[in-house]
Every structure is written in C-alpha cells, then in structure tokens.
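Progress note, project year one: complex with adenosine-5'-diphosphate.
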Amino acid sequence: MPDLRFSRAAASKQAIRIRQLYKTYDAHKEKIAALENLSCDIAEGEFAVILGPSGCGKSTLVRIIAGLEQPSSGTILVNGSRDSAPGKTCSMVFQSYTSFPWLSVLDNIAFAMRYTSTKTKHERRTRAQELARMVGLENFENAWINELSGGMKQRVSIASALATESRILIMDEPFGALDSQTRMAMQEQLLTITEKTGKTVVFVTHDIEEALVLGDRIYVCTSRPARILAEMDVALPRPRTPEMRNRKIFVEMKYEIFHLLRDHVYAQILETHRARR
Amino acid sequence: MRAGDGARRRLTSPIFLGVLPFAAGAVVWTILVRAYHISPVFLPPLESVPAALRSMFIEQRVATDILISSLRVAAGFAVAVLLATPLGVLMGYSFRISQIFEPVVGFIRYMPVPVFIPLCLLWFGSGDLEKVIVIFLGAFFQLTLMVQDAAGGVRQDFYEAAVMLGAPRRALIFRILWPAALPQIFDSYRVCIGWAWTYLIVAEIVGATAGIGYYIIKAQRYLLVSQIFAAMAIIGLLGMTTDLLFGAGHNLLFPWAKKKRSFLT
Ligand SMILES: Nc1ncnc2c1ncn2[C@@H]1O[C@H](COP(=O)(O)OP(=O)(O)O)[C@@H](O)[C@H]1O
Ligand SMILES: [Mg+2]
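Model obtained:
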C-alpha cells in the first residue's frame, strides 16, 4: 500500500472545473478544432499533469484556463468563478523564456508584487530575495536574464510566478527546451517547491516520465482536437524522490500510458502519415 | 609566449585597424597628386588640408559655423525625436492608430529632402528656423516608421507574461513595450542623426549665411579647394564623434542588451 500521507489528490475541493469545452481557431481559410468536448475537474492543491502529443491542444487548454484565450463554447470555472480575466486567479510559466531582459533577476521576481500585493518596497525586495533563494538563484540576484542558462531562466520565471501568490500555477512545457540532466534537476526542485507551497499546479508535458515523476493525477489527451482520453492517479507517495522511477507502480503506469497513447494517438498519427502518402 | 605575439596584437588592435583605410586613402591621394601632376584647383596636396584647417580656425572662426550647424542639427533632430517617438510607439502599439498614420507618413517619407527646401525658404526665410524645419521634415517621417517598427516588434509573449503577473493593460506600454523596444529605438536615433547632418548640409549649401555647408559653398566660390576638403573632414569628424557617443550611450543605458560579437569574427 503506497504511502498517501502527502498526497494532495485526496483534497476534494475543485480548483478548476471544465465542461464541454470547445475551441476552434480561424486560421486563414480553414477552421482548426483544437479542443472538442473536453471536460475535466482539477482538485485544489492537486498537481495535475496534462499529457498529450505536440499540437494536440494542450497549450490551448491551459491558455483558456489562464484567461489568455476565450473558448468557442463550454464552461470553465476557476476557483468557482467564471471571471476569466488573465492574471487574477492563475500565474503561468511559459515554455519560451518570458523573463524580462531589461530587468535584473531580482526585479523580475519582484515584478508581480507591484500589482498583486500591498507590500512596501522594502518588503517586496525581501520577499523577492526569499523566492530567489527558494529557486537557488541567491547568487544571481543582480544578473541580467540574457546572462543565464535556460534552466536558470525558467527558475526566474517560476519565482516570478510564485510572487503573485495566486493559488493556481500553470506551467506550459516549462522544461521542454532543456537538456535531460537540467530537466531532471528542475523537476526535483519543482517538487520541493510545490510540496512546500501546496499550490494547485497544472503542468503540461508530452513526456510520460515527467508526468509520472511530478503529478498527482495525469490527464491524458487525445491528438487534435483534444479530449481527455484517461485520468489516472499516480499512487506514488510524497515527497517524491528520483529513485521512484524504479518502483513497480512507476514502471507499470509508464507502460500503461504508453500503450494507451499508442492505441489512440500514435495510431492516428500513423494514419495521417499513410493518408498523406 | 612567442616572439611576435606583441606585434601581432598591435596589428589587430582596433585603433590600428580603424586607421588603416585612412592611411590607404592618404597614400592614394598623394600618389595621384605627385604622379599625375593634378592641378591643386582639382585636388590640392594632402598637406594643404591641415594648413587650411588651421587658417579656418584661427583667421576665419570656423568654430562658430561648426557650433551653428551643430545647434541646428540638434534642434531639428530633438524636435523630430520628441514627436516621432510617441507617435511611433502608439503606431506600434495599436493597429488602429497605425492604420491612420501609416499611409500619410509613408507618402511623405519618400519625398527627397531637397524637395522641401524651396518651400521652406519661401515660408521661413534662409535663417536658423528654415534649417531646423528642413532637418525636422527629413528626420521625422523616417524616424516615426523606425520607432513603429521597434515598438511593434516587441515579443508578444512578454505582454502575456506581464498580464499573467498581474500587470493591468494600461501598464503594458510603459512597463513592457517601452523598455523592450528602447534599445532599437535608440539605434534608430543613431541612424537618423546621421541623415539629419546630411539634410543640414544640403540646406546650408542651397541657401544660408552661416554654417559648415555655407562655408563649403563659399570656399568653392573662391576655389579654395583645400578648405572644402577641410570642411568635409570636420563634418566627418563631427559625425564620427556623434556616432561614438551614441554607441557609448547604448552600452551605458542598456547594459542588458550588449551587442554580442558575431560567430564569424
Ligand atoms: N492562435 C492560433 N491560431 C490558429 N491556430 C492555432 C492557434 N494556436 C494554436 N493553433 C493550432 O491549434 C492546434 C493546437 O495547438 P496547441 O494548443 O499549441 O498544441 P500543443 O500545446 O498541444 O502543442 C495546433 O494545430 C495549432 O497549430
Ligand atoms: Mg504547447
């Protein structure tokens, strides 16, 4: 029986509730259906992973949750509210490095507090230093963004997002552009941070192992237009450790998801390849 | 450390490299004058240019003309910057605003500056005001489009990131667009002030009673060719100094946007 003491999946209150969500883009002459009848619930405090092949509509989904994009139809409640103004309920880490190169690391981290908190300038600075320490950038507070490596840039983005104090943290393939060693280090650090802060996390990836290492619950998407193909609880205890990759549950789930994707997604990709040829 | 390393370093020092083309020009000039016996009316010996410079500064107070020309450029350019920057930023920010102004700016932009001069002489006389207006007209329209280009080229995901960090829409111009676009806007100032010098000289040659351009046309009238060359050297030096200042300003103002050396060097 896995140790579920730290599992936050048990929390039952909903942070995000999505019903019959559709999204169609008007691109030039054709219409592109990105989401089709997608429904799911994400519980408060849960580390939710959206897993699916590239181009299936994962970014579209989280951008709608974030309020950066409007759905074509369907309902979405974030913290029980329909108000979709971006930046109110969710913070976000993008795959493209979006820290501002004209600000130092510390000023980047402090950026949000000017708008989201009532702290004095001095308090904001102290809090930013605290966050810099949390992501291991205490020695780079005055560095420029362009002097940092990709992994460090993403750590700035994570700290900046944490500074908003919003309860939901959306991460759209944040480690997608990193090499595999850096990626694993970042995963470990993210685990430490989220286990400490207890935030609801919506994490997008196309990497099955990453999904299993990080997530409480994995939402497997079909290829475009995306629907939820399966929801799976990851019955691994917290705190998570890198060694858990060897656990039987981990390996079994990895192959379960692999087969699921192969049957429903890869088959479809192969189909379109054949059709093109 | 091998022998010759020091010499090699000296040969690749920026000052040495920068002086090379000047030296080559001087050699060609001297050969032309000596070997082909060109009349000094067409091409005076190189040595006569420093002498001309000296007499211009000491006897003819060319420093006043330099000052007058510089002030004219500074005034015309400053007005152009003050008006083109906000307009260009707004055009880069809002598609609507760009739709209003782009056609008219694009229309006037293609008019060569000398085209404005007859009208300006007619309306504003041949004094400082006319020079400043010619420079302004020449610089403003080009600069507006360059600023628009810089402002419109700001990465869209910076705006999204800022909004997700709680920034209200009205904060985006000053907190994101402006700092993100400023290095490129500054670069367009640098390019534009070079053009402003050209416009000024043209305006001063066509009709003026003071200034470097006026000095050149006066020297031509008396066939003081070495003075023409000396005046040209002054313009070149002024331009080069301005450019160096802008380059230093860029590094000072935007330490985060230091230009990297190309892979190929
Ligand atoms: N703004 C847009 N306009 C038109 N098509 C888009 C737009 N954004 C995304 N798409 C299309 O929607 C589909 C899903 O995209 P996206 O959500 O980015 O997928 P993912 O993040 O899973 O890779 C893709 O085919 C993409 O080309
Ligand atoms: Mg994506």
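Chain A has eight helices and nine strands.
The pocket of adenosine-5'-diphosphate (ligand 1) is lined by residues A 25, 27, 32, 34, 52, 54-60, 224 (CB under 6 Å).
No further modelling is planned for this target in the current period.
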